[in-house]
What we know:
Two copies of one chain form a homodimer.
Chain A: E1 3-9, H1 37-44, E2 55-59, H2 63-72, E3 79-83, H3 89-98, E4 105-110, E5 114-115, H4 118-133, E6 137-142, E7 153-159, E8 166-172, H5 177-186, E9 189-199, H6 200-210, H7 212-223, E10 226-228, E11 231-233, H8 236-239, H9 247-252, E12 258-263, E13 267-268, H10 273-279, E14 288-291, E15 293-296, E16 302-305, E17 311-314, E18 319-324, E19 327-332
Parallel strand pairs in A: 1-2, 1-4, 2-3, 3-11, 6-12, 14-16, 15-17, 16-18
Antiparallel strand pairs in A: 4-9, 5-13, 6-9, 7-8, 7-9, 8-12, 10-11, 18-19
Helix pairs in contact in A: 3-6, 3-7, 6-7
Amino acid sequence: xxxxxxxxxxxxxxxxxxxxxxxxxxxxxxxxxxxxxxxxxxxxxxxxxxxxxxxxxxxxxxxxxxxxxxxxxxxxxxxxxxxxxxxxxxxxxxxxxxxxxxxxxxxxxxxxxxxxxxxxxxxxxxxxxxxxxxxxxxxxxxxxxxxxxxxxxxxxxxxxxxxxxxxxxxxxxxxxxxxxxxxxxxxxxxxxxxxxxxxxxxxxxxxxxxxxxxxxxxxxxxxxxxxxxxxxxxxxxxxxxxxxxxxxxxxxxxxxxxxxxxxxxxxxxxxxxxxxxxxxxxxxxxxxxxxxxxxxxxxxxxxxxxxxxxxxxxxxxxxxxxxxxxxxxxxxxxxxxxxxxxxx
Amino acid sequence: xxxxxxxxxxxxxxxxxxxxxxxxxxxxxxxxxxxxxxxxxxxxxxxxxxxxxxxxxxxxxxxxxxxxxxxxxxxxxxxxxxxxxxxxxxxxxxxxxxxxxxxxxxxxxxxxxxxxxxxxxxxxxxxxxxxxxxxxxxxxxxxxxxxxxxxxxxxxxxxxxxxxxxxxxxxxxxxxxxxxxxxxxxxxxxxxxxxxxxxxxxxxxxxxxxxxxxxxxxxxxxxxxxxxxxxxxxxxxxxxxxxxxxxxxxxxxxxxxxxxxxxxxxxxxxxxxxxxxxxxxxxxxxxxxxxxxxxxxxxxxxxxxxxxxxxxxxxxxxxxxxxxxxxxxxxxxxxxxxxxxxxx
Lengths: 344, 344
């Protein structure tokens, strides 16, 4: 099996404000390691005995970040597709699917998620591959650790072959907490992490059936694509007419042959400073600290100072303090999802 | 009666760090108004129908701040005495007492205290004046609002004349909380605010009796004083030999003829950010905010941002956040006295 990694680099950059900004969204920040999330995503699928050269789909303003990380990892044969406009994931994946051999198997991944156990993730890819090679569209279902209301859920149906793979019974949009708890108690429900495995022709065929205008405009935009500075530029005028939709809405929720591969890879979408605190290495008092910071008698805090100025904290608990060029913010860890209020 | 204000400008500048620094201690910061505490102290005794030109005793490094505030208030006839070295209050007051007519009555005041009701304070000065003119040394006793352990206390004795003036039974050093509570419950005990009213000759006479070396070195240093740039410079070599001691230890606790004038002038030594929060005007949620700050859902916070960078706070309660050139600090209001740990 040879799989083409497709790395989607979207994201508006408000959830980890003031570090993430429209100019440098989350995937281009070194959050969990000293490399960016984008570089970590590339590295996860860099084994050339299993994966082909990656396809990256990104916006014009992020090409420089993409190039820097590709160079950092010594990847010189990636295909970089520059979206002329943001149209959500269904068109972005279509552009990638149109750039590769039609029987190629695509591993579609967001570029801003953390995966603590890449081996478990790669094992799940292996488990899903046979059915995908036979034409199924696979999604990866993350074992839910808590009744999160910020994720979509996947309700699994009948077992399909080996490795725990199952049919998808239905997709559940972001639920209320009570409904989320019921799904967890019931079992057989997984978080939808936005990671997919599918043949290019399977995806484009399903897209043609369920969202023909997306398939059509993407195909025409790629036919009229130009190459500049090593990147592929789909025709902007054509792509401008493409509807904006997610792969979930446009394809997955409508297609018949969707399967789910359950996996527990230590996944996090790092959707808030609290989420980053949760997965980061901590000191003995539960603090995660980076930058010029003096901490006295603090517990369970997340402190990140990207400025050169010393930050002195005393007697804080369960707080997030982030100082960067774009802003300085202080708020309880439990409310870090509200940080986007300040992103202007 | 004509009284000479003597304004002492000492202070190390660590309690309100990072705003107060050795270069600009508390008295030279605009804390309670848009004028500095020093300027407010000058203004309080600027009525020339009651007060003579002030005497200021300060260190060399603060002469520029003193001059600026004197100019701001249009005071051109002040006597500025530059201490060649820091020797605590007993020598500082001695220098002032040696610079004025010996029958002059000195109103000695720290320059970094807030007084919300200056009229009450001036009434107390009036009440104490007759006994002071007759030779007594008067201290002002602040009605204690709580069992503070950070202040010395004055135990009042027998009534002396009108206006509630009483003899001093004894001075009590900073007590334990239990002892402080006993004093408050007993009544007749006051905070020692370090404000004094006394004739120059009474003070120097008592100093000669109880701390003769201080009196002697100060007298000689003033005899050899030089004038430069409008300020009086006691002889440094002579003053270097002067013992360092407070007026309380050197004189007040030993003298026989000390009286206390009880007063409740809305006094605060502004000894911490919490103390400043307590006396400052607040918004409807109890916050005191100054500078470029965005507050969302915060209650009872003190936020002061002297930098040009926006500070964004959400969901904080009972916290102090201070950002200035010298540092950035975040800590609970209840622990602001610990801020000096960070002052380096």
